[in-house]
């Protein structure tokens, strides 16, 4: 009987399939990247700071007005992004016109900052449309209410653009709760393998509805998860608007020039309840919220602008007046009852209507005609 000798396995040819093993270049910084309150703040262009301030003030007013509309019965629900405005604004401003934004249900402000009509953005939350705007025209995907399902869509679009030779980048937004979904894993894995030009922005606002981050993951940070997929992870102060914009702009540029995807975690805080249907006092204390009020994104920018003599009373008034004008227009148009055609149910499903949809449309048309005829008979 021959004795078997243990030998090390040596694949032939050389293991070109071997994944990256050095994680050091992919690891995020130990602390969130900041600009405001550091020496770097003095090097930020004054025009950019004023632009960010105007967008943040407008965004805060948009959130308060949309929240008020829920109390008036004009919106079925509203997930406020108050306190997270810096993430929303920076996400929109980091993109070029040719790029795509993939928002979650909380990212209405990002869509508005991208240039969409606020009334159309709120169409989903009003219950009028699944998407109240044309995604192709604005290059903003539909607001996604299922958690993290927009992430694989962003990867698919970015991968397709790369195959076609289009220098298009997709930026996908998701909350910390969404990172617990399988779609998050699938999207990051495919994006890294394909080196798709996509940027993932995780807005870590502390809670997945009522579940704190510590009960979702034991990772050092959500940005560390990037290493397991083979992409860089960046950690940034999500309330520092110029810092978020810089990190996202660098990630977008890297993706556009063939560097592949990046996972950015923005550490922020959800100042208000999950939605108007949630009672946040059941799972967090007011002193915790007050700590974050002192780190408000608007206050941080205003502190820098005031310290550099760039924000006087007139500039504050101009930003506030513009925000109030937007809110007044939104309020007036949202208080008007929309005229909706039930047949529109079938208008924006497929580019070419399927046989099944045609059959369903004819059935609904017949039912509507019958109801109309019955109504006319009753009035005679």
From TrEMBL:
Read off the CDD domains from this record. Answer: TPP_E1_PDC_ADC_BCADC (cd02000)
Keywords of the record, alphabetical order, are: Oxidoreductase, Pyruvate, Thiamine pyrophosphate
Keyword Oxidoreductase present in the record's keywords: the answer is yes
Question: What protein name is recorded for this chain?
Answer: Pyruvate dehydrogenase (Acetyl-transferring) E1 component subunit alpha
**PANTHER family, sorted:** 2-OXOISOVALERATE DEHYDROGENASE SUBUNIT ALPHA, MITOCHONDRIAL
Give the originating organism.
Streptomyces yaizuensis
InterPro entries xrefs = Alpha-ketoacid_DH_E1_comp (IPR050771), DH_E1 (IPR001017), PdhA/BkdA (IPR017596), THDP-binding (IPR029061)
What range(s) does the Dehydrogenase E1 component domain occupy? 63-339
Q: What is the lineage of its organism?
A: Bacteria, Bacillati, Actinomycetota, Actinomycetes, Kitasatosporales
Q: Which Pfam families match?
A: E1_dh (PF00676)
Gene name linked to the record: pdhA
Cofactor(s) recorded for this entry are: thiamine diphosphate
Tell me which Gene3D superfamilies the record gives: 3.40.50.970
Annotated region (Disordered) at 1-26
């Amino acid at each position: 009987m021959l004795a078997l000798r243990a030998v090390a396995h040596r694949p032939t040819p050389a293991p070109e399939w071997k994944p990256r093993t050095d994680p050091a270049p992919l690891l995020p910084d130990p602390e969130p990247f900041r600009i405001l309150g550091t020496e770097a703040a003095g090097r930020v262009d004054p025009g950019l700071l004023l632009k960010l301030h105007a967008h943040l003030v407008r965004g805060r007013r948009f959130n308060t007005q949309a929240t008020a509309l829920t109390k008036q019965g004009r919106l079925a629900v509203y997930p406020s992004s108050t306190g997270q405005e810096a993430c929303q604004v920076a996400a929109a401003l980091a993109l070029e016109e040719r790029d795509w934004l993939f928002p979650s249900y909380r990212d209405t402000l990002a869509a508005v900052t991208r240039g969409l009509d606020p009334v159309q953005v709120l169409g989903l939350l009003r219950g009028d449309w699944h998407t109240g705007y044309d995604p192709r025209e604005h290059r903003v995907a539909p607001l996604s209410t299922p958690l993290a399902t927009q992430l694989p869509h962003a990867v698919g679009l970015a991968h397709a653009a790369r195959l076609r030779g289009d220098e298009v980048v997709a930026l996908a937004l998701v909350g910390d709760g969404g990172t617990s979904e399988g779609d998050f894993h699938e999207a990051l894995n495919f994006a890294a393998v394909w080196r798709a030009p996509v940027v993932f922005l995780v807005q870590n606002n502390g809670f997945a509805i009522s579940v704190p981050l510590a009960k979702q993951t034991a990772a050092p940070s959500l940005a560390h998860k990037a290493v397991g997929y083979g992409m860089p992870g960046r950690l940034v102060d999500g309330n520092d608007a110029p810092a978020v914009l810089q990190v996202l702009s660098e990630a977008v540029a890297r993706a556009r020039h063939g560097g592949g995807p990046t996972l950015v975690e923005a550490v922020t805080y959800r100042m208000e309840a999950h939605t108007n249907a949630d009672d946040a006092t059941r799972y967090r204390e007011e002193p915790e919220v007050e700590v974050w009020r002192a780190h408000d994104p608007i206050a941080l920018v205003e502190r820098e602008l005031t310290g550099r003599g760039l924000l006087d009373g007139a500039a504050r008034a101009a930003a506030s007046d513009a925000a109030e004008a937007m809110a007044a227009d939104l309020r007036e148009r949202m208080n008007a009852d929309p005229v909706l055609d039930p047949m529109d149910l079938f208008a924006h499903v497929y580019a070419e209507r399927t046989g099944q949809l045609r059959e369903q449309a004819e059935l609904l048309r017949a039912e509507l005609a019958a109801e109309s005829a019955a109504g006319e008979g009753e009035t005679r």
